[in-house]
Amino acid sequence: MDMFSKNYFNSRAYSKHKLRNYGNPCCFIIPEYMNKNIVKKGTEKQKEGAWKNLILTEQLRGRRTVTGLMSSMFSVSDKLHRTIYDTRNTESLPGKLVRSEGGKSTGGTTVSEAYDYSGLTYDFYKKIFERNSIDTRGMKLDSTVHYGEDYNNAFWNGTQMVYGDGDGEIFQRFTKSIDVIGHELTHGVTQYEAALEYEGQAGALNESFSDVFGSLIKQHALKQTVDKADWLIGAHLFTRKVKGVALRSMKEPGTAYNDPTIGKDPQPGHMKDFVNTTSDNGGVHINSGIPNRAFYLAANELGGYSWEKAGKIWYIALTERLRENSNFQKAATMTFEVAASVYGKGSKEQKAVQNAWTLVGVKIK
Amino acid sequence: MIVKVERSGGFAGMSNSHQIDSRDLPSSLIIKLNRIIENTNADKLPIQSTPRGASDFYSYKISIQDGANQKVLERNQYDIDDDLRSLIRYIESNSKKG
């Protein structure tokens, strides 16, 4: 067991979690963390039983739907399994299979980037958080490249990642930045964990967690400490014609681009500038600037590698504390509580989390 | 009629809008536009649910202004049918931003 698991299993966060699971003795005889551990490390038979318990627990809590999980209920894999498809500029998913796990590098740069960066994302979650793929049980990582014509987008459709080539005028291919691939894959993680609604503040948190872990995956791949990281999302996606360095800046939301054609980066970095809008599902890609900056500020205060402390706090909040309709206030409170559980009440880590949220205008009550 | 398409969302989170006078549409799309309006009037426009967990998808607001009457449809990339999809594509590619 690594230090993360050891500390976490011994932490007050887990003690509380354990107690919560024991709250209904008829249903939660084996606590969730134990089932999760068995899914990771038990025999095939034990894994199956533990997985059934986890699904039953989720159903009874009404915490998330388990349809996606049920489809692959009887297969738990400990191995990375990537498949890359090519739609050849159509929009018919998933497209033609062009590369499978361990297969030869074919299909050019775009296919290689989708393959390599999804592997680095898997490795990050496995090594840092002992997470076995998107769903904790080895879900296959499917990606489709060359989607649509001049398609200026990348998205997660609930089962796979999809990348456009860009139009060559504003955007280049969306596989170019590792943080984009980490971002999309993290949407899958969120789907299987807090299942944050894709609307309003919950949606902005959903987006923010994807940016946070997308950035951490890049920092981890580049072995960057907090002061060396660029804290940009989607750097290298713009063509040279665009006046901008990236799509978003976690460090300084609202400063990533300012261009006559595409306009100015609209992200706020403080609650006083929160944008009330009906477009973009209530501004999920706009107001995510606020929790993004909170994460950066916490990580910056703590120093070192951002995934070690701030990343751990945010990961535990996402996987154990937040729920579908959580808002910024809830995220602040939960990260503050997790920091106390893992590092101690009044610890420098807890103070860093409190300072960060205060600086973006979210007061922890 | 003036048809306006406003798109938001996507990974980039950028918004844009395009509009066109229906007289500038090719005849095949005028037929589709009329069908969309008929279905909207009859509340029969097909709606498919967005897959659970889906994110970074495009959202659309389509406004059809006919004199004093206006119809507004709000959809995302998962719940647009073929008629609406081809109309949106044409307007985005062949009309002025506005």
Can you walk through the features of this model?
The complex is a heterodimer of chains A (365) and B (98). Chain A has 365 residues and is an alpha/beta fold. Chain A folds into three domains: 3-71, no CATH class; 82-176, Elastase, domain 1 (Roll), CATH 3.10.170.10; 200-359, Orthogonal Bundle (Neutral Protease, domain 2). Chain A is built from 13 helices and nine strands. Chain A has helices spanning 3-10, 12-22, 32-41, 44-61, 67-71, 108-129, 178-192, 200-221, 279-283, 289-302, 310-321, 328-343, 348-359, and strands at 82-86, 96-100, 141-147, 154-156, 161-164, 232-233, 248-249, 258-259, 263-264. Chain A has a five-stranded mixed beta sheet, covered by helices on one side. Chain A has a two-stranded antiparallel sheet with strand order 6-7. In chain A, helix 3 (32-41) runs antiparallel to helix 4, helix 6 (108-129) packs across helix 7 (178-192) and helix 11 crosses helix 12 (328-343). With 98 residues, chain B is of the alpha+beta class. Chain B has one domain (2-97). In chain B, 29% of the residues lie in helices and 34% in strands. Chain B contains two helices and five strands; from the N terminus they run E-E-H-E-E-H-E. Chain B has helices at 27-41, 82-94; strands spanning 2-9, 16-21, 58-66, 69-76, 96-97. A five-stranded antiparallel beta sheet of chain B has the order 4-3-1-2-5, covered by helices on one side. The interface between A and B is medium-sized, with 38 and 20 residues.
